[in-house]
Write a structure and sequence with these properties.
Oligomer: single chain
Radius of gyration: 19 Å
Number of strands: 17
Strand order of the largest sheet: 1-16-17-15-12-9-10-11
Structural class: alpha/beta
Distance between the termini: 21 Å
Number of helices: 7
Strand content: 25-35%
CATH architecture of the largest domain: 3-Layer(aba) Sandwich
Low-confidence stretches: none
Shape: globular
CATH superfamily of the largest domain: Vaccinia Virus protein VP39
Amino acid sequence: MITQNLPNYELLDSGFGRKLEVIAGLKVTRPSPQAIWKPNLKDAEWALATSNCVRTKDGGGKWEHRKEPNPDLSLGFDIGDKKLKFRLKFTSFGHCGVFFEQIPVWEWLFQEVTALKEKLGRAPKVINLFGYTGCASLVMAAAGAEVFHVDSSKGVLDWGKESQALSKLDPKSIRWVQEDAQEFLRHSFKKNFTYDGILADPPSWGHGVKKEVWDFEKHIHLLIELMLSTLNKENSFLFLSSHTQGVQPEALRNIIADRRWKNISPGELGVKHKNDGRILPAGIFVTAKSY
């Protein structure tokens, strides 16, 4: 799944652990540990960036802006006949609220939700675990799903609600749930709640609402068991991605191996550079469907 150039986003260059992008008209540089090669463009081109994210000694980061970005900055994204808007904010870790390698994922989700809605004759019930600012949740809601967006951070939930309002989506189409992902699934299992689709993009490491520790390699098996316990056995889909160093696509296939699936497809995420054929690696994924 490779992100190509979009009207509101361009990957101009990358190298020496950084990337040069245009995001909603702003030229920025950010850390990119995967970019271990030499940049193609000259230093003078990189120097034109007006916003630069730099790492600090304590492992964090900060943005240096020659001109402060508009606080109401947003990025438009059209899918199907829907026109969505995602609120952009520049965080200390170099994020802006949108992960551009996810665009093919959103397109896949929109297609699957649309097909499931027709197949089921109702709105599919789907979960977005570790949902962050909710771009994928907005896309699935736009396709006609009833979405449960789960994240442990109230800040990113509020951020997602801003994008939902900007996109003029039905407020009832997404339920914003501040909860640990595994606890949400446990509660669903106890209440016999089932879902037609699950999207999960777990971090390598993190904390839940009650300081629950998440470690990908230690907890991914339990997470998968919980997801499978709440997914409908027929007419359901799963999309699992990972950015954990050392984990390969085939490993994700092996983790979710289950006889119910009629179609399992592992692969890689990446972003294509604007003016050359290089692909910036951006994680791995596996999709599975029972239809």
